[in-house]
Amino acid sequence: MPLLSRRGVLAAGLLAPALARAQGAWPAAPIRFVIAFPPGGPSDILGRLVARKITEQKGWQIVVENRAGASGIIGMGEVARAAPDGYTVLINASAHSILPTTHKDKAPFDIPSAFLPITMLGRTPMLVTATPSLPIRTIAELLAYARANPGKLNYTAGSPGGGPHLGAELFRLTTGVDIQYIPYRGSGPALQDLAAGNVQLGFDSLTASAGLARSGQIRPIAVTSPTRNRAFPEVPSVAETVPGFEADTWVAAFLPARTPAAIQAQLHEAMAAAIAAPDLTQRILELGTEPGGQSPAEFDAVLRREIAMWADVVAKAGIRVE
Questions:
Q1: CA-CA distance, 297 to 314, in Å (whole number)?
Q2: How much is the pTM?
Q3: Ramachandran region of residue 70, left (φ > 0), alpha (ψ -120 to 50) or beta?
Q4: I want to staple 272 with a disulfide (CB 3.0 to 4.6 A). Which of 2, 74, 108, 293 is the partner?
Q5: pLDDT (0 to 100) of residue 123
Q6: Which pairs count as long-range contacts for 18-25, CB under 8 Å and 24+ apart, including other chains?
Q7: What is the pLDDT of residue 250?
Q8: How many whole angstroms from its chain centre is CA 141?
Q9: In angstroms, rounded to a whole number, what is the distance separating the alpha carbons of residues 37 and 44?
Q10: What is the pLDDT of residue 24?
């Protein structure tokens, strides 16, 4: 039998994963986790933590890549166009349920139908905060002050059309208070201006706000989850004063549409097992995040409910994202 040339050996090596895929073995090649936001944010942190734990538990090779830009649409587009074979996974933030409303005419694909949900990796509340010079320490005091001073309170919630902005507008619509939005390019400069007293109130993810809140540079007032957060047990929820209020953010995993259900199930099982590992569960809780792991069907129901909810908020608040 003749020996293979060096080029032939290389070609055989490159074809091996494709042949294994064709023969039904999965995974037979590295899996790409495409994170739709920059390094260092909640999506990046949770995506990398889960990828590392899956590799530890299952031995799968996972390559993590950040594809940030256009509110997540660049990373989403890369996954939407990928082959539906389970080797390209989207790690995205709750912007996924907002963009179908705010960017319906801007996205080059139909967001709700382009992806198959796997599971939520974790859910994080927003933290409602105040600049220390403002005489407000509770949601009840915030409502009383706003009603006594209509139009005189302002707030920041990072970039227009993001989760914190829509969460703040949901609060405004639910309570009927007159507070004015001051837009910023992102959470960093917004929270720094809040600490400096250049803006009065803040609505942002607990992950982004926690450092300044713990140091006393901004004052935590409430969390937007239905119940108190284990990372800030002394801070009440908005729902304790405004029953039923909820406006969390989340990070989740998706596949391209038409990915086989068997692969979706394998990825869900691997992610749920990783999230349930005691050391990773503890790390997620330390971030102020509630661990995920819901079934694809359960997560799909959350997505559908939130897409409808945010569409209603955008319409009633008259939000326009340029």
A1: 26
A2: 0.85
A3: left
A4: 293
A5: 94
A6: 21/85
A7: 94
A8: 30
A9: 7
A10: 64
* 158 and 164 Cβ atoms separated by less than 8 Å: yes
The neighbouring-strand residues paired with 252 are: 92, 120
pLDDT digits (tens, 9 = 90+) for 158-195: 888 888 999 999 999 999 999 999 998 888 899 999 99
Residues 306, 170 contacting (CB under 8 angstroms):
no
| Burial class of 14 by CB neighbour count within 10 A (0 to 12, 13 to 18, 19+) | exposed
Token pair belonging to 88: 């390209």
Q: Phi and psi for 73 in degrees, rounded to 5?
A: -70, -30
The answer for 291, left when phi > 0, alpha when psi is -120 to 50, beta otherwise, is beta
The DSSP code sequence of 118-151 is EEEEEEE-EEEEE-TTSS--SHHHHHHHHHHSTT
What is the distance between the alpha carbons of residues 171 and 175, in angstroms, rounded to a whole number? 6
Q: What's the chain's length in residues?
A: 322
The single-letter DSSP state of residue 108 is: S
Task: List, run by run, the mean pLDDT of 10-residue segments along the chain (322 residues).
Answer: 41 44 78 93 93 98 94 94 97 92 87 96 96 96 96 91 93 96 88 96 92 96 95 96 95 97 98 98 93 97 95 92 76
The H or E element that residue 243 is part of is none
d(C-alpha 111, C-alpha 269), whole Å: 24
Q: Read off the DSSP letter of residue 237.
A: B
- Residue 50 phi, psi (nearest 5): -70, -40
Contacts of 306 (CB under 8 A, 6+ apart): 94, 97
The answer to whether the CB of 33 falls within 8 A of the CB of 66 is no
Q: What is the pLDDT of residue 188?
A: 86
Residues 6 or more apart whose Cβ sits within 8 Å of residue 159? 71, 165, 183, 184, 185, 186
Degrees to nearest 5, angle at CA 120 with 116 and 126: 130
